[in-house]
Amino acid sequence: MSKALNPFTRRLTAGIGIAAIAAATMFGSMLPASAADTTPGPGNIDNAISKSLTIHKFAQPATVGTAPDGTELPSSATSGLDALNGVKFKVEKVNNIDLSTNEGWAQTVGLTPGAVAAADLTFVAEAATVNGVVTFPNLAKAVYLVTETDPGANNIAFAAKPFLVTLPLPNKSDSSWIYDVHVYPKNSITELSKTVDDSTGTGLGTDVKWSIAAKVPAKSEGNALESFAISDTLDSRLSYKSATVTLDPASSALVLDTDYTIDTTTTPGTVLINFTPAGLAKLVPGATVNVSLVTTVVSLGGVSGVIENKAVSFINDSSFTSNTVKTVWGNVIIHKVAANDESKSLTGAEFQVYTSEADAKAGTNPVVVSGTSTFTSNASGIVQIDGLRATVNGTDTVVDYWLVETKAPAGYTVAGDASKSNPKKFFVAQGKVATTIDITVANPQTPPFMLPLTGGPGTVAFMIVGLGLLSIAGGVALRKRSTRSVSQI
């Protein structure tokens, strides 16, 4: 027998039912829909949908952007960013978390990459970016640890930190699920370049300047500039002279021994510039640290005069090597011989070398090599000039020189093709490699006095003059005799 409910009882019963439904809905929404059974509802994970992870790799811009949500960004959001090719990523599955249960999803809350044990990981795949993108398709529903393993050819100062991702990924905006997840971990890039200026160098003992430019990386998530140093290992034919360090733009002046130190003794032959904490604070992201390193060329040390140099920068735990530049030098050998017989060597000839024809003719600004500007032929007739700059800043453009013989050996005159009025032009480089160049300078003997000859036209002339004198003497005698005869009469 049924019992009718009064209106108040009916309203109370309905209210309790609505509240129960609301409570069930609220608590149910606090757990991921993937914890439901295999028959998905509108908000549940659809296990039949394939899942993928796509990594987009760009250089970190000066301004840190907003964090992406797992969906693919429109092209306008990444326009102007530099895509990085060849950056390699490794994807590993976290085995001890089951995303088919609420307990598994609960384990992901607050989980960090460092808390995942290596024993709980299974290797899935490893691949490098092409045009800044790499995709890992057909992945299972799971938690994955993604690690950047190789920067490729990119000067990555701050590598992207390892990160965790679930497939699928909850969509914060509408409580749906993202099956094709797109992530945008960025790298802070540095640049390191080197140039050479050997324009002030002519002979051994003169200077060559090397310029180093190192870019300060932009800030990136989870990274900070903890150390910054520049190292330059000099060729044994170079000796350190000085170094200056500046910042461009010059937002702050860098002070030696306050902002940075220069160490040339810890490792002989190596110049190490290391920034202090005070100096690190002045290194604005995107600025360039410029180092002007001056060295002296002290020897050539062999046949080749090619002296190469490169620099290395150290940023946190990473190191970067600059391009290689060079300065090219060579030797000159002058053979001093007699003009009429080049097998005869001449000692005591003196030479000077000039870098312009005008200086050669004027006798001004001679080239100095190892402290001397005058080079003398030895007992074998050899003048050895060790160490003249051969090309311009290590390029294929040769350096021209003019040779002047300033003093000839005793008994000889200055060679006409190496005189002050007509200096001899030469260059050291042959092809693209400096070698020893040989120059032959022949001297004519000083002209002798004209001496009488025996026989021939010279003798006849003397006989004619002698007969003439005898004729004159005979005529005078006859005249005196005639005068005496007249007087006697």
TrEMBL record:
Pfam families, A to Z: GramPos_pilinD1, Sgo0707_N2, SpaA
Protein name: Fimbrial protein
InterPro entries xref list: Fim_isopep_form_D2_dom, FM1-like, GramPos_pilinD1_N, Ig-like_fold, Sgo0707-like_N2, SpaA_PFL_dom_1
Transmembrane domains' residue ranges: 460-478
Record keywords: Membrane, Signal, Transmembrane, Transmembrane helix
Record lineage: Bacteria, Bacillati, Actinomycetota, Actinomycetes, Micrococcales
Protein origin, superkingdom: Bacteria
Location of the Gram-positive pilin subunit D1 N-terminal domain: 51-188
SpaA-like prealbumin fold domain span: 330-438
Signal peptide coordinates: 1-35
Domain spans labelled Sgo0707-like N2: 204-327
GO terms of biological process kind: carbohydrate metabolic process
Organism: Arthrobacter psychrolactophilus
